[in-house]
Design brief:
This protein is α/β, with parallel strands linked by helices and 231 residues long. The chain has eight helices and ten strands. The strands form two sheets. It has an eight-stranded parallel beta barrel, surrounded by six helices.
Length: 231
């Protein structure tokens, strides 16, 4: 299997303007800004999210990771933060996406699918008519305290590839990606985009060396045979 194109890269769990600048300078096409979650890393205040989103240059997407399920509250959250993309990390009620579209024209909608087994394929395809992209991650919404991202775990990339092949919208791949395995992941899934949080951090902070290694691995791996990268 061959990686046929270089994927876009989203750096998630951005904590401040300095990290945003580091990620953009490294080549990030999107930044992930994490609002209140039941668990997981990278949560910052909506005021901080708004400050970062306001400084993101044209051509770089600002993703708001949100666990809010009420449509009116989601609309209000987007307006407070000023992001251009909503990343929905949990399941919304029927009809929610249509209401979001009507209220937030021009705002991209990305649904997270937590890949836990073959049932995730049906779940992903059911939502594709309503969203601009999917993001395949390794959380577990069924736990008493929901895991909705940032677990640092990989999942079954064969299932992710089946979703990517069947989905009529772009697919981002997340979950446990590092410089050591991202080429293998790209070759296995061939996603539109790659999403990374923990894999480019040390003690929670964005690590310039790990960030550079990650982008070098992607550049080195684009268009090459599958296989892990060692640094």
């Amino acid at each position: 299997m061959r990686a046929t194109r270089k994927p876009r890269v989203k750096i998630c769990c951005i904590r401040n303007l300095e990290e945003a600048g580091m990620a953009i300078d490294a080549g990030a096409a999107a930044l992930g800004l994490v609002s209140k979650m039941p668990s997981g890393p990278g949560v910052i205040s909506e005021e901080e999210i708004a400050q970062i989103a306001a400084r993101v240059p044209p051509g770089v997407a600002s993703f708001l990771l949100t666990s809010v399920l009420d449509v009116r509250a989601l609309i209000a959250q987007q307006k407070r933060t000023g992001v251009n993309t909503l990343q929905i990390v949990d399941r919304l009620e029927h009809g929610a996406f249509q209401r979001l579209r009507a209220a937030l024209p021009g705002i991209a909608l990305v649904q997270v699918i937590h890949v836990r087994g073959p049932d995730s394929i049906e779940e992903a395809l059911a939502v594709t008519p309503h969203v601009d992209a999917l993001l395949l991650d390794s959380g577990n919404p069924a736990l008493p305290v929901k895991e909705l991202g940032g677990t640092g775990r990989t999942h079954d990339w064969a299932i992710s590839r089946r979703i990517r092949e069947a989905a009529p919208v772009p697919v981002f791949l997340a979950g446990g990606l590092t410089a050591a395995n991202v080429v293998e992941a790209i070759c296995e899934v061939e996603p539109f985009g790659i999403d990374v949080c923990n894999g480019v951090r040390t003690e929670g902070r964005l690590d310039a060396a790990k960030l550079a290694d990650f982008f070098r691995a992607i550049s080195r791996g684009a268009g090459t045979e599958a296989g892990p990268v060692t640094n």
